[in-house]
Each structure stands twice: as C-alpha cells, then as structure tokens.
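dumping this here before i forget
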Amino acid sequence: MAQEQLNQDIKWLESQLEAKKKELAGAGLEQKEEREIVKDIIKEAPQVPAPPPPKLSDDAALKASDELKEKEHAHVVDELVKLVFTKNLSSALKVARNLKNPHLLDEFHDTLADKYYEKLLESRKIKK
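structure:
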C-alpha cells in the first residue's frame, strides 16, 4: 500500500513539474533547474490531493509531532521523510506542520524534494 501511495505521489509530482515548467515558459520567466522546481512544488504542498487511507488522524499527527519534538533536528527530518514513504505525503506534512518549527519545516521540504527528485530520476521520468 505504501509503494502504491508513493507511486501516486510521484505521478502527482510529475504532473505538477510539467505544469510548473509550462507556467514558467509561458510567463517568459527564467527556467529553473528541475530540482529547484520540485522544491517549489513541495513547498506549495497544500495543493497535494487528499490521498486515500491510510492517513494519520489529527490526534495521531499531533501525537507523532509531540514525540518528534523531543528528538534531534536531523532525526526529526529523517522520521518525517520515512513517514512520507510509509504513509503518505499529506500525513507527513500534517505532522511537520504540527511541530510549529518553520526552520524544521523548511529543511523537511528541501530534504523531501531531494528524495522525490531522486525517485523521479530512478523511475527515469526525468533526466539530469
């Protein structure tokens, strides 16, 4: 189930990447590196479509964020990334936002964008 959700997230990310490229090209804006576009898409994550279960309830997300608050910064980011790949993007973002730490949220976005970018490369959907 987690692999299926990951595939759905990557498919969504691919469509967002193509749309963002067209938007930048159509507006005559400077083309960004694909990795940077992926980071922008992840940061705009409220647009993530609501995934099917399993997802964390609000109580479970709050509990998970409370547990993570007591861990080291790098460990928290790693745990959030693991949550993306074991549950889904929406659940991990909910936990990350409950931490109420903008610096941590930004690092999570960057790390996650890098991980998704690697997955996109692995799936041979984009090239360097």
